[in-house]
Amino acid sequence: MAQSYLSLEFIDKTFERNGTKSEVLKQVSLGVDKGEFVSIIGHSGCGKSTVLNIIAGLIDATSGAVFLDGKHVDAPGPERAVVFQNHSLLPWLSVYENINLAVSKVFRGKKTKSEQHDWVMHNLDLVQMAHAKDKRPAEISGGMKQRVGIARALAMEPKVLLLDEPFGALDALTRAHLQDAVMEIHARLGNTMIMITHDVDEAVLLSDRIVMMTNGPAAKIGEVLEVPIARPRNRIELASDRTYLKCREAVLKFLYERHRFVEAAE
Amino acid sequence: MSVTQLNIKESKQVSPKAQVVAFSPAKPTRPIGSMVVEKARRLNATILPPLLTLALLVLAWEILCSSPTSSLPSPSRVLSESWELIIHPFHVGQGVDQGMFWHIAASLQRVALGYALAAIAGIALGVLVGQSQWAMRGLDPIFQILRTVPPLAWLPLSLAAFRDGNPSAIFVIFITAIWPVIINTAVGIRNIPQDYQNVAKVLRLNGFEYFAKIMLPAAAPYIFTGLRIGIGLSWLAIVAAEMLIGGVGIGFFIWDAWNSSLISDIIVALVYVGVVGFLLDRLIAFVGRLVTRGTANA
């Protein structure tokens, strides 16, 4: 098969704890094109975060490999920047310093000091957080922290941006704001993005394709759904859009009819 | 967004009015006046209770020790007997006949040296033990046993090793203060959240960058807890150590006063020891607050 921009090939993952092996992922293969927005959805505990962590290089796959832009990747790196679920900003640094830590590391020797400063401010502007650059994470709201987290990831100029349930901890209104912000950034910069989510509406609204995972143990990709809705997308217009509703129904059916979450399987 | 901001501004404008009404009904049109009044009130609330209790305690002491046969001096007798000592803290004389300031300064010098060495070595060992599973398994049992050895038990050994009083006293401070620093630093390092480690991995920070930018700041609150316990223990140990090694220093001053039956001088010295110990603790706490600003509340 022709290799995609990012490709996961036959990923297996087995965790071993106290001598008992538990198979988390089995034969997960996925190709993502450049500029594509792909969501991975599944019930909690199905191993979707494990998939993301393997792409990020934070966890090693038991077997199988990840290729990005033709190169094999097996360790973390800034070209696969992660937006963590709980923002993971360093609390002792200001918003500016948090992003500057990433910029000065990634662009050392490639950008001058003043270019680095401009790049930090540019990325803060992208997420509309330039006004809070001297604040510490403890002084800003949860939604703002996640904006800064996104800015930090974007500032690494990643080949692929990995979002690990980025809006899971936010209230519904803030989540909607941030989803719009991510859509706008995706439209402007054309990044390749992979997002883990358990929110059906979020997946349909943001994605070009939705990867649905079966329940663990030994979770695999159950189905991949194309979302043929033109961009830019507007959440209000989509609310009554037939394609949108059909996609939504398809995902719901997958999750709640064919692969209902069984608590006992945990 | 804009609506929220508007709300905040409104509530900010409202709040001073409420303060004026609450705190100074006499001058409702002058918020500055009410602020002064409020400040004075707060000062009263924090300064007045300790002053009052102190006065009561001194009074009780005066009454209890007022009889001429009492074995301990009353406050008024302390004042009259040790007046020279109290009003001449910078007195310079022969040998150990120095003002209180010089005794305290000599003790502080020993503590500063021993404590600084303990802080450096303690943080370094703490990082080692916190970082490496192997180092922890190897060193932790030894630390746990050594830290229970009372400070003064080290003194004969260090006298034998250094054959001099001053370095021995410094070593006793060092060995007293180092354990809480090591243990707290190690706990701090072991408790660095996985999130921060993931950030470091994605950024590919090298060992030194990780140490300086993630490890030290993340562990700083723990480290300062250890440093604060350490300074308290140092000050406890120096008085006892100096009693034995002699020379200028607050510990030997107390011992000397006891040998000369100058009980009032001992009481003056105790007040100095207490106040300086308190100030040392506050100093480390203050530095800790400066350094760990924002880290504690993640």
From TrEMBL, chain A:
Location(s), subcellular: Cell membrane
Gene Ontology molecular function: ATP binding
Pfam families reported for this sequence: ABC_tran
Keyword Chloroplast: no
Membrane-related topology note: Peripheral membrane protein
CDD domains documented for this protein: ABC_NrtD_SsuB_transporters
Keyword field: ATP-binding, Cell membrane, Membrane, Nucleotide-binding, Transport
Family, as annotated: Belongs to the ABC transporter superfamily.
Name under which the protein is recorded: ABC transporter ATP-binding protein
Species name: Rhizobium lemnae
From TrEMBL, chain B:
Domain (ABC transmembrane type-1): residue spans on this chain: 104-284
Protein keywords: Cell inner membrane, Cell membrane, Ion transport, Membrane, Transmembrane, Transmembrane helix, Transport
Database matches in CDD domains: TM_PBP2 (cd06261)
Residue intervals passing through the bilayer: 43-64, 112-130, 168-189, 210-229, 235-255, 262-280
Keyword Glycoprotein: no
Membrane topology: Multi-pass membrane protein
The organism's place on the tree of life at top rank: Bacteria
Pfam families: BPD_transp_1 (PF00528)
InterPro entries: MetI-like, MetI-like_sf, NtrB
Main location: membrane
Cell location: Cell inner membrane; Cell membrane
Gene3D superfamilies named in the record: MetI-like (1.10.3720.10)
Family: Belongs to the binding-protein-dependent transport system permease family.
Name used for this protein in its record: Nitrate ABC transporter permease
Species the sequence originates in: Rhizobium lemnae
Lineage: Bacteria, Pseudomonadati, Pseudomonadota, Alphaproteobacteria, Hyphomicrobiales
GN (gene name): ntrB
